[in-house]
Amino acid sequence: MAFVSEDDFRHSSNSTYRTTSSSLHTDQEALLGKLPDCPPHPLQRPEDRFNGAYIIFFSLGVGGLLPWNFFVTAKEYWIFKLCNCSSPAPGEESEDSDILNYFESYLSIASTVPSVLCLVANFLLVNRVPIHVRVLASLTVMLAIFVVMTALVKVDTSSWTRSFFAVTIACMAILSGSSTVFNSSVFGMTGSFPMRNSQALISGGAMGGTISAVASLVDLALSNDVTKSTLAFFLTADIFLGLCIGLYLLLPRLEYARYYMRPVRPPHVFSGEEPPLQDSPSDPLVAPRSSSSPTPPLCPILKRTAGLGFCVAYLFFITSAIFPAISTNIESLNKDSGSPWTTKFFIPITAFLLYNFADLCGRQITAWVQVPGPRSKVLPALVLLRTGLIPLFMFCNFQPRVHLQSVVFPSDIYPVLFSSLLGLSNGYLSTLALIYGPKIVSRELAEATGVVMSFYMYVGLALGSACSALLVHLI
């Protein structure tokens, strides 16, 4: 992991941006959001000693998504639990086969709906509930849910399969909602920090996906007992969530973090005749109560972030339309050879590991390069260009094929290349759009804007998941 010195960045009370070349002056001004000759803040900006804040935000990114990833990728465990642990006699069908057949669909609904509702609630609570309360409460709930699921791993649920299914769906709904509140709150908080901290948080989320993919491969290769491997996964998630609580409590002790977490003016709704408030050394950091609004002004945020919001939503729309519905059904053309690579390991490596690792690489590249800028027309052009990835995956060896019989890319190398391109482009472009969002608004709206950017992402994921079902039927 590489770090970028704070000396390589310019600062304002609202943003930090990388100085690359004079040709990016327009984009830099867009990130700055103020005139270049704005007077500096009287407080001296401390350095991120030993990259402590960067490491904490990266770890929080891992912890925010690692439990959810483990929950979703434990497919063999759910099959074992929901097939009735008593193992029905040969030729008999489990009475709960309908639950098993549609389990992933139920899990998807239990994940998506609470996420959207909790995002809306989190936006409304930005100015009502302190961020440390929202973060610690969501982490505590996530930890409690995973402790319950960890305890159930070694419990024989064969006599109450349907009740176990209901408990699992309820736990998934609570876990997903809590994870959304945690991730959107911390991402909103990083809006007041230099961009490298937002990038660290987003890269940490991708690392969580990569770790879960590697763990799944190791389990596939070595484990013979699904309950033992699942217990190890869930205990790892428990430990990481506990670590996240400790790291978040440690964050305010860093001088660097305290500087960027200092109080700012609450959001102010402008009438159109009065000028917007500007930070200045002589003004207090907190405005009078009469000018504050309990709910952040949504319309100005949506207006300022419309372009970047479209980029985020469309990026995740294309990605979720392909992954995992299409990419995980692309089989090796040499499957009949009986080789472990072409049978047992082909899909886990090409669809999961390669995508997650490429996504992590794309997000990490933004620590060094932030091009194109937030106002550049190149960014939405690159986002729209990713539409071409859909037919590329559809004409690989997707099975079963009903309507499109021809396979245009008759080699196993193509899924490898396409999955890598899908992950790399998703990681790089989505990270740029997400970290730019809170930087093009005033600092007091940065946290609320971070929540709104997360909402764009979930909209894209929901629409893409719905579209994936249509694409699968077209193939």
Automatic annotation (TrEMBL):
<feature type="transmembrane region" description="Helical">
    <location>
        <begin position="415"/>
        <end position="436"/>
    </location>
</feature>
<feature type="transmembrane region" description="Helical">
    <location>
        <begin position="106"/>
        <end position="126"/>
    </location>
</feature>
<feature type="transmembrane region" description="Helical">
    <location>
        <begin position="164"/>
        <end position="188"/>
    </location>
</feature>
<keyword id="KW-0472">Membrane</keyword>
<feature type="transmembrane region" description="Helical">
    <location>
        <begin position="200"/>
        <end position="218"/>
    </location>
</feature>
<protein>
    <submittedName>
        <fullName>Equilibrative nucleoside transporter 3</fullName>
    </submittedName>
</protein>
<feature type="region of interest" description="Disordered">
    <location>
        <begin position="1"/>
        <end position="25"/>
    </location>
</feature>
<dbReference type="GO" id="GO:0005337">
    <property type="term" value="F:nucleoside transmembrane transporter activity"/>
</dbReference>
<comment type="similarity">
    <text>Belongs to the SLC29A/ENT transporter (TC 2.A.57) family.</text>
</comment>
<feature type="transmembrane region" description="Helical">
    <location>
        <begin position="378"/>
        <end position="395"/>
    </location>
</feature>
<dbReference type="Pfam" id="PF01733">
    <property type="entry name" value="Nucleoside_tran"/>
</dbReference>
<dbReference type="GO" id="GO:0005886">
    <property type="term" value="C:plasma membrane"/>
</dbReference>
<keyword id="KW-0812">Transmembrane</keyword>
<feature type="compositionally biased region" description="Low complexity">
    <location>
        <begin position="12"/>
        <end position="23"/>
    </location>
</feature>
<feature type="transmembrane region" description="Helical">
    <location>
        <begin position="230"/>
        <end position="251"/>
    </location>
</feature>
<feature type="transmembrane region" description="Helical">
    <location>
        <begin position="448"/>
        <end position="472"/>
    </location>
</feature>
<feature type="transmembrane region" description="Helical">
    <location>
        <begin position="52"/>
        <end position="71"/>
    </location>
</feature>
<feature type="region of interest" description="Disordered">
    <location>
        <begin position="271"/>
        <end position="295"/>
    </location>
</feature>
<feature type="transmembrane region" description="Helical">
    <location>
        <begin position="338"/>
        <end position="357"/>
    </location>
</feature>
<keyword id="KW-0813">Transport</keyword>
<feature type="transmembrane region" description="Helical">
    <location>
        <begin position="306"/>
        <end position="326"/>
    </location>
</feature>
<dbReference type="InterPro" id="IPR002259">
    <property type="entry name" value="Eqnu_transpt"/>
</dbReference>
<feature type="transmembrane region" description="Helical">
    <location>
        <begin position="133"/>
        <end position="152"/>
    </location>
</feature>
<dbReference type="GO" id="GO:0005794">
    <property type="term" value="C:Golgi apparatus"/>
</dbReference>
<keyword id="KW-1133">Transmembrane helix</keyword>
